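Run: sequence + NDP -> complex structure.
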Amino acid sequence: MKVLQDQVAVVTGAGRGIGRAIALKLADAGASVACLSRTAANAERVAAEVRERGVRAWPLAVDVADAAAVEAAMKSFLAEAGRVDVLVNNAGITRDALLMRMSDEDWEAVLETNLRGAFLMIRALARTFLKQRAGRIINISSVIGLMGNAGQCNYAASKAGLIGLTKSAAREFASRGVTVNAIAPGFIETDMTAVLGEEARQEMLKRIPLGFFGQPADIAEAALFLAGPGGRYITGQVLTVDGGMVM
Ligand code: NDP
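>> structure
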């Protein structure tokens, strides 16, 4: 029997990069997966890849920052799937600028998607998780939420906020058997980091003790660990997956 046999997972930002890798990894482990992404075509493409693994998939084109859309999507998804065992809040964006030049719009957009989006998803599924008296919630934070970064005050605040959200939800849900943890990835090769120039990449590489960039699969492995039997006794934690950047 597979580790997540007959389980149901929801992954946000599943259309590309880390979210896609997590959705496919959970599907490989036997879970059916709701693939939530902003762009319908991306959600559908990954849902098709999930189905190739012999499990169910629900492509959901939803903006996680849109409270009404999240509520409606989770309601109809739950009506179809009947349960939820794993929620991975992975959807995230960057809008970088130095603090003095950061616009209200860029501050708000990043906080809305990265932090409020995760809160809205957890709230929409909380009743079901608590009723089931079991579940795993995994929030994708970042090493930037632990260290800060010049030019990313909005992103760092959102990712640090996710850690506070993780720990509070972990305390609220623990007595019902629902764990809540965060993963803090370091530098992972995706579209998000592809925009950085060669000079910035080389600078970054110098700060990674293991000496190489991470891949989406590295984060997917950590998510599977927290979602699977190995995560049974772990809650309220931040698992840093960064080649040793933060230690
Ligand atoms: P990508 O930019 O490659 O992919 C982001 C995904 O999130 C896309 O599928 C995108 O949807 C989706 N998304 C963005 N905004 C929304 C929204 N409002 N509602 C729903 N879905 C949305 O990012 P990565 O894979 O690199 O990053 C994934 C997560 O990991 C993010 O939270 C990021 O902050 C975090 N992270 C990444 C690191 C890295 O080095 N790459 C390091 C540390 C953390 P669509 O495809 O439909 O546009």
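>> summary
The first strand starts at residue 8 and ends at 12. The two ends are 36 Å apart (CA to CA).
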